[in-house]
């Protein structure tokens, strides 16, 4: 156990660990089952355990690496969808992803910033927003700023959760890391439930207006 703890502690402030997480976020634009958020939260929890300004500087470094990785992954997914019809492949057209993708596409015209940021915080939200933007043929000069904004909010959210637990107690970094990841997963599930409620309310209102 002591060896495992020491190995984990060695990840603090490690540039290669930041690069690995950024690479996971880049690939995660297509490979949606990777535990991207859990990795960011876990590493942020460990990094926050550093002393003084070192922790703050390294957290900003982690944030920067992750945003770059996520944006590059989104750009790659966007062009794959535009170029080879990646978004039309059968495994990209599951019932839930298709529903979210359609709903995002409907709202991109009226409130693109709100949709790109909020939906990304939900499970499968990242791929849904990128594919919806591709479906709508959103120009890259418009897509890129929205992508950067959404990625920064998503990464910032994950880093803050991890940092909050990591700075709370430096005596047991493994426990803080596990608690941070568990909290992030629980918040994601809660957000999914709340979003489902709002979707049902919106559908009922549409049905009511259609009937009226």
TrEMBL record:
Residue stretches making up the VTT domain: 35-163
Pfam families attached to this UniProt entry: VTT_dom (PF09335)
Keyword Transmembrane helix: yes
Superkingdom of this protein's organism: Bacteria
Membrane-related topology note: Multi-pass membrane protein
Predominant location category: membrane
Segments passing through the bilayer: 16-44, 56-81, 146-168, 174-198
Location in the cell: Cell membrane
Gene Ontology CC entries for this record: plasma membrane
Protein keywords: Cell membrane, Membrane, Transmembrane, Transmembrane helix
Family to which this protein belongs: Belongs to the DedA family.
Name the record gives this protein: Membrane protein DedA with SNARE-associated domain
């Amino acid at each position: 156990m002591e060896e495992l703890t020491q190995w984990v502690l060695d990840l603090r402030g490690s540039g290669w660990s930041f690069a690995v997480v950024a690479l996971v976020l880049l690939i995660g634009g297509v490979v949606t089952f990777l535990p991207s958020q859990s990795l960011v939260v876990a590493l942020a929890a460990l990094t926050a355990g550093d002393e003084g300004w070192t922790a703050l500087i390294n957290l900003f470094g982690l944030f920067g690496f992750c945003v770059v990785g996520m944006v590059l992954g989104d750009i790659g997914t966007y062009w794959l969808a535009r170029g080879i019809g990646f978004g039309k492949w059968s495994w990209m057209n599951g019932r839930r992803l298709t529903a979210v993708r359609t709903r995002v596409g409907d709202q991109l015209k009226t409130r693109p910033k709100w949709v790109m940021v909020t939906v990304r915080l939900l499970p499968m939200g990242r791929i849904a927003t990128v594919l919806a933007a591709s479906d709508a043929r959103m120009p890259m000069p418009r897509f890129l700023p929205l992508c950067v904004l959404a990625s920064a909010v998503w990464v910032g959210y994950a880093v803050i959760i991890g940092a909050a637990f990591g700075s709370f107690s430096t005596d047991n970094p493994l426990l803080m890391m596990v608690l941070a990841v568990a909290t992030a997963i629980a918040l994601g599930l809660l957000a999914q439930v709340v979003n489902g409620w709002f979707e049902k309310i919106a559908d009922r209102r549409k049905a009511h207006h259609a009937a009226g």
